[in-house]
Fold:
Amino acid sequence: MLVKTVLVVLPLLLGPSYGTVPTPKTNHSQPTSPPGQRRLDQLLDFFESRKLEEALAWSGVSPILNSRCKKEMGLYLKGLRDGHSWADKMFDSTGRYSSLFLFGNDYFLGSQSLCMELGRNVSTPDPLEDDSRRVGGPWRGPPSFLRWRANPPPFNLSFHVITLRVALPPHRFQGNPREVRWGLCLPEGCSQDDSAIMARLMAERGRERGAAPTSAAVRVISSKRVPGNYSLWSDTIFHVMVTATCLVLFLTLIGTTLDALWPVEGMRTATVVGGTKRVGFLDPQGETDGHADNNAGRRVAAVVGGFGYGCCSGRSPFESCLSSYLRCFSLPRNARMVLRGSRVVMPLGQGGEAGQKDTESGPRHKPLECLHGLRFFSLLWVILSHTYYLAFLYCDNKHYRGVVERDFLFQTIGNGPFAVDTFFFISGLLVSFLYFRSAAAALEAYTITPTTTQTTLAPPLRKRAKQYLRLVAYRVIRLTPAYLFVIGVVELTMKSFRSESVFEPPTDDDFNCPDFWWRNLFFVNTLYPVKEMCMIWSWYLADDTQFFIIGLFIVMLGSSHFKWAAFVGGTVLLTSWLTTAFIVLDYDYMPRISEPLALFDELYDKPWTRIGPHIIGLFAGWFLYTTDCKLNLRRHYLLLGWLFSASLCSVVVYGLYCQISDAMVSASYAALSHTAWAVALLWLVTACAAGKGGWINSFLSCKIWAPFSRLTYCAYLLHPVVIRATVAHTDSPLHISRDTFAFLFIGHACASYFLAFILSVTLEAPIISLLKLSLFPKRLNLV
Structure:
């Protein structure tokens, strides 16, 4: 008895910390924040039914909201209080803060698709409704998420996206303010103005509940209803696009039918002039559909899309000129021309030949076939970079980009803009190489040396001017149809993007293209501010066309006055370096891998800062012509050349891994890096053309790359449309990881090339064949 008394009394005397554990008081409320502070979820809780009820109860609100909206909102709030499932689902499909705000999540969107589905005549499925079904129990019918309950809301629904500017307490959070996109599932009777008013009132009620230093400052910037009022069927551009598409499809049907029912022989013999066979012409984008052969006893065939230039004088009624033009739209022939791309290699948006064509005596060496792989992988590099930029623009973990950019190998993705320099280099190379070779073939003059002051490669000035204008016109006409078609597609898709997507388009193409499309048509859009540019990625086409005009002039000048041409080219190159360096110093710009497109207007897209690789390409083409694609060097010199090329590429691509802080180093890197990349390619192409490329040449010259190389122009035009479509048709932000990014890139690349094939065989290839029949029906007359 005494022991029991001691055991009971002693703990009471010693206090609760000895021998017993006090029972904690149960607190079912949420954990409280430190005094004077509010948790992040409380600061970012924009939408709360109690806030909305209090806001709508203000005496001054009734005249502001329209009567239908006020009535339906009353029913909505009553449904929330009474626990109706449709009201809970409306509330659940409305966006709210969940996580990752401090890591770059600016999208509190909810689900627009589920909100609109809830507003249909049948209600959304309730996966939690059937609690009687148990795993392993008897079959009780299909799962509840496959069944529909007839419990719709008493009104139709609409989805609104509010753009807010949110500034959190600066003593706790950095990087303020930020724009947040907030999705609201509301009754259909509420307009954009009504949703903006309610958002503003809820934000004000939220500020009143907390002290000013500890509350979030929220300001409503804009509101839009998704989907908006845009109608594709009433758009004039859509009618024009449909009409043009139907016309092309009709011509394709006629051409395919003619080709199937009345096939014609595809080969035409060459024309013999002065003992020299002249076949084809110099494509103004660098393509040659034939070559000269001094052996007058041989017959050389020229093929243009599967049929000859002389088909206007055929032997049957269907060999007439009209038949020849219609056959240009033959789908099988154009498909074969694209898939049999081993005959041609082109810089982006240009034509070109990998080497000389086969003759009856056997195949000839094709020294420039390495350009097939170079073009294909360069475009993949471009698609990879564009996928990266756009993915992080619409993701909920933007700060993950900083983690990725610390990876050394990421510099490869971040420096994707150098892939465009590859296209500039190839463009200059083919313009120079093929012009000199075609001119020599036409005039039986095969040598140009640096000491030559006047050669027989130059026709009279009047004919040279006519030829120059003709070649420029050919290029512009060749590029324009597919270009204009994609401009129309971009305008329509961006209008639809802005109206039907919960996101904002990355650029204002839906506004700029209707007003400034003519700048693209004349290839001068890079001379205007980027905020007014239609198809921002079209800056390359503008620059490349301007470079073609300049480069062709230098090349034609070099055919008669080599030293003057070298002086002009060197002056242009030096001026470009100095101009770029001056701009970098003037704007105190430091190149960084995190900002590859900084100073886009002043530095990135301007022709006077990007012409360096094209000039190097012109020199490369002249060098390959004068050396007849031969390189007689000893083995150790070849090794030094490869080491130099690899080192130069590595410095250019990975040189920004250690950030540059010196102004002069920054100016030097920005001014010389693009040209240095082209110099590295100069060795690669020269070595491969001379047969010194080893496995690198074998890989880049693999025939499997040829069709993809042929599709590069259309794929470049279309790939941003594919990337944007990925975002436009989702109602929630992406969550980026390495695997997700890899799958996005593969999908974008495959879809881009598939659509490029369709555009090429139906529009681009027919235009090429038509131009060859019209402007160059027999041969290029250089004399």
About this structure: The beta strands are 107-108, 157-167, 178-187, 217-226, 268-269, 271-273, 276-278, 292-293, 301-302.
